[in-house]
Amino acid sequence: MTRFQRARFANVIVAALGVAMLFPSCSAEDIRVRLVNGQTGEPVRGPQPVVLYLGRNHSAFLDGTTDIDGVAVFHLPDPLAEWITAGQDSQILYHCSPYQKNTFKTAEILSRGVIALNVCDSKGKLKGKVDAKPGDLVIFARPLHWWEKGQW
Question: What are phi and psi of 93, to 5 degrees?
Fold first, then answer.
Protein backbone atom coordinates (compact mmCIF):
# COMPACT_ATOMS: atom_id res chain seq x y z
CA MET A 1 0.00 0.00 0.00
CA THR A 2 1.44 3.37 -0.96
CA ARG A 3 1.62 6.38 1.30
CA PHE A 4 -1.19 8.02 -0.70
CA GLN A 5 -3.46 4.95 -0.26
CA ARG A 6 -2.76 4.84 3.51
CA ALA A 7 -3.63 8.53 3.86
CA ARG A 8 -6.84 8.08 1.85
CA PHE A 9 -7.77 5.00 3.95
CA ALA A 10 -7.17 6.98 7.16
CA ASN A 11 -9.39 9.83 5.87
CA VAL A 12 -12.21 7.39 5.08
CA ILE A 13 -11.99 5.86 8.57
CA VAL A 14 -12.03 9.29 10.25
CA ALA A 15 -15.03 10.35 8.14
CA ALA A 16 -16.92 7.15 8.98
CA LEU A 17 -16.28 7.62 12.70
CA GLY A 18 -17.44 11.22 12.47
CA VAL A 19 -20.69 10.22 10.79
CA ALA A 20 -21.27 7.47 13.38
CA MET A 21 -20.82 9.98 16.20
CA LEU A 22 -23.48 12.26 14.69
CA PHE A 23 -26.14 9.58 15.18
CA PRO A 24 -25.72 8.14 18.70
CA SER A 25 -29.49 7.87 19.16
CA CYS A 26 -29.82 5.26 16.40
CA SER A 27 -29.27 2.38 18.82
CA ALA A 28 -32.54 0.61 19.53
CA GLU A 29 -33.64 -0.72 22.91
CA ASP A 30 -33.85 -4.41 23.78
CA ILE A 31 -36.69 -6.15 25.59
CA ARG A 32 -36.26 -9.62 27.08
CA VAL A 33 -39.48 -11.65 27.13
CA ARG A 34 -39.27 -14.37 29.76
CA LEU A 35 -41.69 -17.28 29.33
CA VAL A 36 -42.43 -18.76 32.77
CA ASN A 37 -44.52 -21.80 33.73
CA GLY A 38 -47.65 -20.32 35.30
CA GLN A 39 -47.97 -23.17 37.80
CA THR A 40 -44.38 -23.76 38.93
CA GLY A 41 -42.61 -20.44 38.34
CA GLU A 42 -39.83 -22.23 36.43
CA PRO A 43 -38.76 -21.06 32.96
CA VAL A 44 -40.47 -22.83 30.06
CA ARG A 45 -37.44 -24.66 28.64
CA GLY A 46 -36.69 -25.10 24.99
CA PRO A 47 -37.62 -23.11 21.92
CA GLN A 48 -41.12 -21.62 22.00
CA PRO A 49 -42.50 -18.98 19.62
CA VAL A 50 -43.12 -15.54 21.15
CA VAL A 51 -44.72 -12.48 19.51
CA LEU A 52 -44.50 -8.76 20.35
CA TYR A 53 -47.16 -6.49 18.85
CA LEU A 54 -46.11 -2.85 18.64
CA GLY A 55 -48.55 -0.01 19.28
CA ARG A 56 -52.10 -0.04 20.61
CA ASN A 57 -53.44 -0.99 17.19
CA HIS A 58 -50.77 -3.71 16.66
CA SER A 59 -49.52 -1.86 13.59
CA ALA A 60 -46.33 -3.94 13.54
CA PHE A 61 -45.04 -7.08 15.18
CA LEU A 62 -41.80 -8.86 16.00
CA ASP A 63 -41.60 -12.62 16.37
CA GLY A 64 -38.89 -14.63 18.01
CA THR A 65 -38.10 -17.88 19.78
CA THR A 66 -37.13 -18.46 23.36
CA ASP A 67 -33.76 -19.95 24.18
CA ILE A 68 -33.04 -22.88 26.51
CA ASP A 69 -33.71 -20.60 29.52
CA GLY A 70 -37.11 -19.45 28.26
CA VAL A 71 -35.91 -15.98 27.17
CA ALA A 72 -36.44 -14.26 23.83
CA VAL A 73 -34.63 -10.98 23.16
CA PHE A 74 -36.25 -8.42 20.87
CA HIS A 75 -34.45 -5.42 19.38
CA LEU A 76 -37.08 -2.68 19.21
CA PRO A 77 -37.04 -0.45 16.13
CA ASP A 78 -36.78 3.33 16.26
CA PRO A 79 -38.98 5.16 16.97
CA LEU A 80 -40.15 3.15 19.97
CA ALA A 81 -43.82 2.20 20.08
CA GLU A 82 -45.57 3.61 23.15
CA TRP A 83 -47.34 0.29 23.86
CA ILE A 84 -46.31 -3.36 23.52
CA THR A 85 -48.49 -6.48 23.66
CA ALA A 86 -46.73 -9.80 24.23
CA GLY A 87 -47.75 -13.41 24.00
CA GLN A 88 -46.53 -16.89 23.30
CA ASP A 89 -47.67 -18.55 20.11
CA SER A 90 -47.09 -22.23 20.87
CA GLN A 91 -49.55 -24.99 20.06
CA ILE A 92 -48.35 -27.09 23.01
CA LEU A 93 -48.77 -24.46 25.74
CA TYR A 94 -51.80 -22.95 27.44
CA HIS A 95 -51.84 -19.13 27.54
CA CYS A 96 -51.74 -18.21 31.24
CA SER A 97 -51.24 -14.55 30.28
CA PRO A 98 -54.12 -13.72 27.91
CA TYR A 99 -53.30 -11.33 25.04
CA GLN A 100 -56.11 -8.98 26.10
CA LYS A 101 -54.33 -8.35 29.42
CA ASN A 102 -50.75 -8.17 28.06
CA THR A 103 -50.51 -4.59 26.80
CA PHE A 104 -47.92 -2.49 28.63
CA LYS A 105 -46.18 0.86 28.26
CA THR A 106 -42.79 0.39 26.61
CA ALA A 107 -41.22 2.96 28.94
CA GLU A 108 -42.40 0.97 32.00
CA ILE A 109 -40.92 -2.27 30.64
CA LEU A 110 -37.60 -0.58 29.93
CA SER A 111 -37.38 1.34 33.20
CA ARG A 112 -38.43 -1.28 35.76
CA GLY A 113 -39.69 -4.44 34.06
CA VAL A 114 -43.22 -5.85 33.99
CA ILE A 115 -44.87 -9.09 35.09
CA ALA A 116 -48.04 -10.03 33.20
CA LEU A 117 -51.22 -11.43 34.72
CA ASN A 118 -51.03 -15.15 35.51
CA VAL A 119 -54.47 -16.79 35.33
CA CYS A 120 -52.94 -20.24 36.01
CA ASP A 121 -52.01 -19.29 39.57
CA SER A 122 -55.47 -18.77 41.07
CA LYS A 123 -54.23 -19.36 44.63
CA GLY A 124 -51.40 -16.85 44.30
CA LYS A 125 -48.58 -19.27 45.18
CA LEU A 126 -46.19 -17.59 42.74
CA LYS A 127 -46.98 -14.03 43.82
CA GLY A 128 -43.71 -12.35 44.77
CA LYS A 129 -41.61 -15.34 43.61
CA VAL A 130 -41.18 -14.16 40.02
CA ASP A 131 -39.34 -10.88 39.48
CA ALA A 132 -38.69 -8.60 36.52
CA LYS A 133 -35.60 -6.48 35.99
CA PRO A 134 -35.54 -3.35 33.80
CA GLY A 135 -36.09 -4.46 30.21
CA ASP A 136 -37.86 -7.70 31.25
CA LEU A 137 -41.41 -8.64 30.31
CA VAL A 138 -42.51 -11.84 32.07
CA ILE A 139 -45.40 -13.81 30.56
CA PHE A 140 -46.86 -17.11 31.74
CA ALA A 141 -47.85 -20.37 30.06
CA ARG A 142 -48.15 -24.00 31.05
CA PRO A 143 -48.00 -27.33 29.21
CA LEU A 144 -51.34 -28.54 27.91
CA HIS A 145 -53.01 -31.38 29.78
CA TRP A 146 -53.58 -34.56 27.77
CA TRP A 147 -57.29 -33.83 27.40
CA GLU A 148 -56.58 -30.29 26.14
CA LYS A 149 -54.22 -31.57 23.43
CA GLY A 150 -57.12 -33.31 21.70
CA GLN A 151 -59.13 -30.10 21.53
CA TRP A 152 -56.59 -28.23 19.38
Answer: -125, 145
In the chain, where are the structural domains located?
28-149
Please tell me which residue, 66 or 125, carries the higher pLDDT value: 66
Q: What's the rounded Cα separation, in Å, for the pair 142 and 152? A: 15
In the three-class reduction of DSSP (H, G, I as helix; E, B as strand; rest coil), residue 29 is classed as: coil
Q: Which amino acid is at 33?
A: V
Task: Say whether pTM exceeds 0.85.
Answer: no
DSSP notation for 118-141: -TT-TT-TTTTTS---TTEEEEEE
Question: Which CATH topology does 28-149 take?
Answer: Immunoglobulin-like (2.60.40)
- Tens-place pLDDT, residues 82-133: 999 998 888 889 899 987 888 999 999 999 999 999 999 888 888 788 999 9
CA distances from 118 to 23, 60, 140, 147 (A): 41, 25, 6, 21
